[in-house]
Amino acid sequence: MDKQNQKYPYIVRHLMAAMYYRSSVLDGLTKEECLAEARVITEKYKIGTCVIWSKNECSYIEPGGKITESNNPPSGGVFGI
Predict the structure, then answer these.
(1) Which among 36, 43, 57, 60 has most CB atoms closer than 10 A?
(2) Mean pLDDT, consecutive 10-residue segments, the chain of 81 residues?
(3) Sequence-separated (6 or more) residues with CB below 8 Å from residue 70
(4) Please, which residues bridge with residue 61 across strands?
């Protein structure tokens, strides 16, 4: 994926070590709405999810609802829309 053409924010699901599935976020959602969408995905699939806000800002959401803010977005194989 061409990192220079990424549109923020977007959501990734952790599939396995260094493998993520990328999903677009609707334009105009607030940070709280993006996190709510990510929580739904996290609980539906019972896997860690991350909202990428920028190349140096993200929020990791764990099953159970814990959110961890970070400046280290996931890296590795990303596929999806």
Answers:
(1) 60
(2) 66 83 89 95 93 93 95 73 48
(3) 57, 58, 59, 60
(4) 49, 67
Query: Two tokens at 75?
Result: 């890296």
| Number of residues in the chain | 81
**Alpha-carbon distance 28 to 47, whole Å?**
26
Kindly report the pTM of this predicted structure.
Answer: 0.81
Domain holding 50, by residue range, is 3-80
How does 51-66 read in b/e, with b if 16+ C-beta sit within 10 Å?
Answer: bbbeeeebbbbeeeee
Handedness of CA 15, 18, 24, 25 (dihedral sign): positive
Instruction: Mention every residue, 6+ apart, whose C-beta is less than 8 A from residue 80.
Output: 12, 21, 22, 23
pLDDT value for 4: 46
